[in-house]
Specification:
With about 500 residues, the protein is an all-alpha fold. It has three domains: about 200 residues, MFS general substrate transporter like domains (Growth Hormone, Chain: A), CATH 1.20.1250.20; about 55 residues; about 230 residues, Growth Hormone, Chain: A (Up-down Bundle), CATH 1.20.1250.20. Helices cover about 80% and strands about 0% of the residues.
Length: about 500
């Protein structure tokens, strides 16, 4: 099946009714479970980290379990996208599922934190493939006009999986021990493989292909130091440390050599000819801004609620539900609108404007907790207009032969945007709190754990100053996230393709 960016709406959309429903039941269940597996493995370990550190020790290295998976997912997305274009996405999905199952067994059997981190790298190499290939299979099997609806469904799965992961991880850890959070992937992976078998096999033809191993090497040498540098920035609250400088230098040199290699490779890992096109790089940049804004909200709103508003852990979880529900329902609604009208980037172009306004209001205007929840729900709903549109735009612009590469570029942009965005927010938060009141920065960890009651031992004046520093810091955080949304809005308006 070949698509063109000039597909006419009347040719692209299937007849409504039974054919569309048949397409849904034939395709969506087969890609939903692999996507769920890839995403949930990012967050399911969050609530198990204390139990893991208590069992394996080395608590100072516990973040490796999270960072190692993030690094591997970021590396894997463009690799699987490119291999799927050449060898078939259904076939590569089986490979990614096998990697996840094997890695999950190794994670469950890990005797040390180092071995667990290495197994998590392998698990991320499979999980990144599941996420990228699920998006690509939608592009391969669904007509262009219907893709936005299916991408909306996948976006809802993505958000639901992120929200479900910590809950499931906490329950499994408490009931069966932390190793069970990895063993559960074995039956799920086998069932997912059976579902993928329902998809039609599409063998790839064309010229002989040689994988760009040199490009992959330079890509890894760029991504790993860059993400480790960001992790060190978040831990130290400053980019001006020797470790960050050394890692940043390695990343920049590797990036230069990677770009040099990709301009000369006959079959490049990163298709720069695609990434130079405005209808590809602008949606990718929009995905990066969206990832920075959404992941920063998901990461720092719980801390804000705990530190500034004094909510309990259960209350914080309830107040986060509007974000998950909003982004999922917004994705579903946008997908249906694109499918019905054929319009694409006009939806994020319009929707992100009020998102910017809502985040500015959240930063500057005091409001009750229900007002915070309502503001976040509306902002999340409007932010749901982005990812489905981005995926459909790049897939149609790239054409059927390069769907995987284009989809991988979106996943990569979103991951890098989220990593850089949250690192910058973290740095701004700690720097602004320390600049406002050095004492408040010293009490930050206690505030995250116990809320404002952690300052009960301070004199009233010192306590009021510390809380004012926190409110000031989080106000700047919301303004920075509003800046990410504003940049995304500008990019959405600049995307050339407006209609399918």
């Amino acid at each position: 099946m070949k698509e063109s960016s000039q597909v006419a709406p009347r040719d692209a959309a299937p007849d409504p009714g039974a054919p569309s429903k048949s397409l849904f039941f034939r395709v969506f269940p087969s890609v939903m479970l692999p996507m769920f597996l890839g995403v949930v493995d990012q967050t399911i370990v969050a609530t198990a980290l204390p139990a893991i550190s208590a069992d394996l020790g080395e608590v100072e290295r516990i973040s490796w379990i999270v960072v190692s998976y993030l690094i591997a997912v970021t590396v894997a997305a463009p690799v699987y996208g490119r291999l799927g274009d050449v060898y078939g996405r259904r076939r590569m999905m089986f490979v990614a599922l096998a990697v996840v199952v094997v890695a999950s067994v190794l994670c469950a059997a890990a005797p040390t934190l180092v071995s667990l981190s290495l197994a998590r790298v392998l698990q991320g190499l499979g999980g990144g493939g599941l996420m990228a290939l699920a998006q690509s299979l939608i592009g391969e099997t669904v007509p262009p006009r219907e893709r936005a609806r299916f991408q909306g469904y996948l976006a809802a799965v993505f958000v639901t999986s992120n929200a479900f992961g910590p809950v499931a991880g906490g329950y499994l850890t408490e009931a069966f021990g932390w190793r069970s959070i990895f063993l559960i992937n074995i039956p799920l992976g086998i069932f997912a493989a059976l579902m993928v078998r329902r998809l039609p096999a599409r063998p790839r033809g064309g010229d002989p292909f040689r994988f760009d191993f040199s490009g992959l090497g330079w890509f890894v040498l760029f991504i790993v130091p860059a993400l480790l540098a960001l992790e060190r920035i978040q831990a130290a609250g400053s980019p001006f440390t020797p470790a960050v400088a050394a890692l940043g230098g390695v990343a920049l040199v590797s990036l230069g050599l990677l770009l040099r290699r990709e301009t000369r490779a006959p079959h490049p890992l990163l298709p720069l000819n695609l990434l130079r096109r405005p209808d590809i790089w602008r949606p990718d940049a929009l995905a990066a801004c969206h990832g920075a804004a959404l992941v920063s909200l998901i990461t720092f709103v719980p801390i804000y609620l705990r530190v500034v508003r004094g909510t309990s852990a259960s209350e914080t979880g309830l107040l986060l539900l509007p974000i998950a529900i909003g982004i999922g329902s917004g994705s579903l609604v946008t997908g249906r609108l694109v499918s019905r009208t054929g319009l694409t980037s006009i939806f994020p172009s319009v929707a992100l404007l009020p998102v910017v306004a809502l985040l500015v209001v959240l930063a500057l205007v005091p409001m009750p907790l229900w007002g915070v929840a309502a503001t976040l729900a509306v902002a999340a709903f409007l932010m749901g207009s982005v990812m489905g549109v981005v995926q459909v735009t790049v897939q149609i612009a790239a054409g059927s032969e390069m769907i995987g590469a284009a989809t991988g570029s979106v996943a990569f942009a979103r991951s890098v945007g989220a990593a850089f965005g949250t690192a910058l927010v973290s740095m701004l938060l700690f720097a602004s709190v320390a600049a406002f009141d050095a004492g408040a920065a010293e009490h930050f960890a206690a505030l995250v754990e116990h809320g404002p009651t952690a300052l009960a031992h301070l004199a009233p004046a010192a306590r009021d100053t510390a809380m004012a520093a926190m409110r000031h810091g989080f106000g700047l955080v919301f303004l920075l996230i509003a800046g990410y949304a504003a940049a995304g809005c500008v990019l959405a308006w600049s995307i050339p393709m407006r209609r399918l």
